[in-house]
């Protein structure tokens, strides 16, 4: 499978015709699927383990170099499996994910989202509840430090690598140095730098690596300036899934005095996008699929399954997924519960009631659409697990504010 080269970031149309989607169906079929209500999320633990092992191999077997983002994993049982395989440092985006990964055994958890107000107070509560776990947060201004005063929260500076979503611009080195000094002056632990370069997904891999490495050169200048001011940098965090190859090929990270950790999370389950972004020879495979059912055949070259955008996320564009075993069938624009699929003229359409297995284009929000997941081993359902960190915590403790 080759990596599509698109500056727009969209998948190559031919990507969905790759042999993987033709030959893989047999290893994903589920016995007795007719007894299952669909759409259903199915997770294959053996493939999850294999994907984790691939990531660890790419990191030289050093689990300490990986700080996976658990926005993808979502299930407490999968997070526990990651801990069992030696991973101790994690990243998350919500307080529910934070509590879930700590309960799963994390020794170090970074909330990589710029929380303020009541959200920050909730992070402090969770940190106090689990004193044996190191809990960290992000800041980008001196004003954000105050909310953490008096807590045991460690702070990372969020550096904006050009994604322009959060963080302090990487060219403002003097401000970053002053911010690091302010963290230490406040009596809080300074963890280091957080540098999420997710915007690089729009480049084909060779150009992605070149652009990423120029950014990392600038990041190393920031490190030198901060350390030149007498402030120790313990850790530098880079790279979600798209930039993962770029981070592990940047030699200065492996030679540095600080700990460098990459933070891809999607690779635990994988999806169409990550398959397109990463070298095929690495061997990642989809570990989560959506099982859907054909509910209609409205025309001679079209059928519809029960996997609209409330099931398979449409945030990454259309097609929202690929169909295992049917690479020439192209999903069309979904509605809330319906996903029409176009078939080449003369193709034999699946029957109404037939199960169809979908690999999402973006697995992270797709997992978040489900309350439960089937665990599947050797073609059999071995359990049903709650999607533990789906959604968010209650926004406020109503019982504490209403008399009676």
The named CATH superfamily of the largest domain: Alanine racemase
Q: Could you name the CATH class of the largest domain?
A: Alpha Beta
Coarse structural class: alpha/beta
The largest pleated sheet is described as:
9 strands, mixed
Low-confidence stretches: 1-10
Number of domains: 2
Mean pLDDT: 93
Radius of gyration: 22 Å
The name of the CATH topology of the largest domain is TIM Barrel
- The share of residues in helices is 25-40%
Instruction: Give the CA-CA distance, first to last residue.
Output: 62 Å
- Count of extended strands: 17
Question: What is the topological layout?
Answer:
Elements: H1 19-23, E1 40-43, H2 45-58, H3 76-84, E2 89-92, H4 95-103, E3 108-111, H5 117-129, E4 134-139, E5 154-160, E6 168-169, H6 173-185, E7 190-195, H7 205-228, E8 235-238, H8 244-248, H9 251-255, E9 259-262, H10 272-277, E10 288-299, E11 302-305, E12 321-323, E13 330-331, E14 339-342, E15 355-360, H11 363-367, E16 372-377, E17 380-386
Parallel strand pairs: 1-16, 2-3, 3-4, 4-5, 5-6, 5-7, 7-8, 8-9
Antiparallel strand pairs: 1-10, 10-11, 10-15, 11-14, 12-15, 13-14, 16-17
